Request: fold
Amino acid sequence: MSDPTLSSFGTQREGASRYLGALREHWLLILMLVIVAVGSAAAYSYTAKKKFKADADVLVTPQGSDIYPGLPVIRDTNGLTSGVLTAARLIQTPQVADRVRARHPEFGLSRDGLLGSISVDPLSQSNVIAIVSTARSADRAANIANAFANEFTSLRAQQFNSALDQARSRLRAQVNSLPAAQQNSPAASDLRAQLASLETAAGGPDPSIGVASNAVPPSSQSWPRPKLSIAVAFLVALLLGAGVALALELFNPRISREDELLLGHRLPILARVPRVGSSVASRYLT
Reply:
């Protein structure tokens, strides 16, 4: 009886020999695919328009429900993540883009163009939002990211102070409307304390939003990346060429090598016809 282990080893050896033979036979096809792919990747990488990325970080500090009640600040009602996501959505609004466009006409972009040039990415497990800008120059990318960060915090400060002024006016009116007998009551003292707290915050920024770090021009482009593109093209073309060579070997019924007869069909070699040049064959025949 034959050993199944030896039989399996022989089958694997035959398969490996067949695959290696297919690669040797179709090496020119594989080489051409690699050359075309690498050349195309190199040509695209060195002629494509460069893109640069820069990011400015916005710090979100959600406020409790007992701090500045009734004012438009970022709250932590559902945890830190909720406040960060709320702020991230507010950055990509037409109001912020219109302020950037009005303040920086040198960008030459429409509202949609400005919004399309940035992405807002809340950093995982943190209260920081990255405003990432993509542009054709390093300085332009940094300027757009900083413009969105500054205009967003400026808009939030304006909205906060507008609501703050209204709240201060209401508290003053309540204090002034108290009868003389209640001017020293606990309720009057509480109203004065709230008014004093609002007076302290008047004219300041939104306490829940701030710029953590400004964007700086990147030292290198983010796209294209020639070395990476060429390496990926080389590997893909090599794998594709090997796959095509193996497919041709599997679906081609012709037998072109001795090892196919010996290993695949277990047939003996009865004769060999030498390969000679046409001139030699012609002289022999004549």
Observations:
- The radius of gyration is 37 Å.
- Residues 22 and 145 are 54 Å apart (CA to CA).
- The longest strand covers residues 52-60.
